[in-house]
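The protein record minuted underneath.
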Amino acid sequence: MDTTATAHGARRPAGTATAAGTDIDILRVFCTADGRNGNRLGVVREGRAYPDEASRQALAKELGFSETVFVDDPERGDVDIYTPGTRLPFAGHPLVGAAWLLDLEVVRPPAGEVWVRGDGEFTWIEARAEWAPPRTLRRYATAEEVEGLDVPEPGEWIYAWAWEDESAGRIRARGFPGRGEGVDEDEATGAAALLLTAELGRALNIVQGRGSQMLTAPGPDGVVELGGRVRLEGTLTR
């Protein structure tokens, strides 16, 4: 396995697919201001190297990230998203990461058209909360309770959250996929952040996992904005 990286998490030139293998960019999405934490994401820019669902699912399982994205058309922004065990029509952190990496104004997962904007160090997407896969949003009394939770048994996707500062919209959260796919805890869950924002009806500043940061803002007609920082961690060749 060959691994390369660019300095300071900057974007790198488009990936390649050759006899030697296919480049897979590894991102960390929803980082802190100093580049720490974030949810790891694999992006296969040459999606044609994995032409069918079976080969894509096998690679996603091998990589073991919460999600892996396959880019089918980098000009249109057509993408395909997989967890280690299933294909998803929509997911938050893969779309923020792919949009940043490809420098797109729109990204198109199976769920629909997702508009993108940049704002300084943040990349924002606009999506409908109804596109998010089901999550159980479970509120706790304090942030300390959330931090002290054990990983629950598989069976239910639980997004545990509590107010850190309700007046300021600051939330402490953890995500437990419960799928039995080898990902016991999700470091940053954009889809759950969309659902929570829609439920609470207000802008949020969410710290999840080890310290990853997501910002959200509700918009008209069920649309929610989701934003965060992205860094390029390196590149694998398969």
Observations:
- The radius of gyration is 17 Å.
- The chain has four helices and 16 strands.
- Confidence is low (pLDDT under 50) at residues 1-8.
- The helical segments are 53-63, 92-102, 143-147, 190-200.
